[in-house]
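Obj: model holo form, ligand = calcium ion.
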Amino acid sequence: MKVNIPRKDQRSEIGADGRPPEDGNQDCVPTALAAMAQALLGRPFTGDGFHDSAYGQGYLGLQNPARYVALMAANGLDMTYLDDAPARLVARAVAEINAGHPVLLAIPSDWGANPPRSQFAHMVAGCDTPDANTLVAMNPWGGFYQSQPLSWWQDRLARCSYQGIWIVKKGTPMTDTSGLGSGFAAFAQAHSLTCVSRDSAGRGEHTYAQDKGGASTFAAFAPTAEFPTGVILYYNQGTGEITPNKAPWVAAALWNRGEALRQQADQAESDLTAARQQITQLQAQVTQLHTQVTELQQQLGATGGADGNDAADQAIKALATALAAVKPS
Ligand SMILES: [Ca+2]
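Output (holo structure tokens):
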């Protein structure tokens, strides 16, 4: 098999909470993605565990693959959405599977009917191409390998209410040039978020926070139905984790701001101390000059009058008067 996707049954697999899936009939998306993550990362994941992470324990209903982009990114997996003509989607799926990248495929929920008529989509994990005309997917409805000709997949993709495929691969979702990871950008796109923050240089829509664990990027987004008061998303560059409104990181950002102000105050005080030292030195020099002038005056008082050097005497006295006005304080 090109991608070693394990069989998983969306309706019976026990999740991380130790219970059967409460949304098992609708867990095709998280179960297919959990199987992909398990194949790519070599450690266990469950559909219900994914369901509970993305939608919350107890959620019942349909699930959107886009809601799993952040969760997959947090595990170092990149999900790329592609919509195109069904023939091109199948060709791309084959190419990706051959490259070792599983592909989330959407088919009508009554995929076995001829023709299928269901308006509900079912998601499976494309994982193998045993020959040039066959694609195999792990179907989580019961958990079996579904092997069909490419023409069958093309027909089912064309008839499905859900448009497009998702390509899943390992990789750090943080390699784009703007500093916002692709996982971050995909999360914002998937949640229809409009960025409202700008960095100071106007180069991007983000800024940075430092915490002891390393750098994170964050951006603010306008309110939506999902985030009625708006949201700030944090992207940890080290782990790829995306976190909405994570309070400790907000606190860290505020702490950093306070720390910067404190350092500025320290610098100002240090500058002021240096300035005061300079003033003290100048005052000492003035005092010294004053003393020298006084000595000179005394010498001139003894001999200057006799020499008739009144002009020099007056100049020195004027200087002494001026210096006397600059008193050390
Ligand atoms: Ca659960």
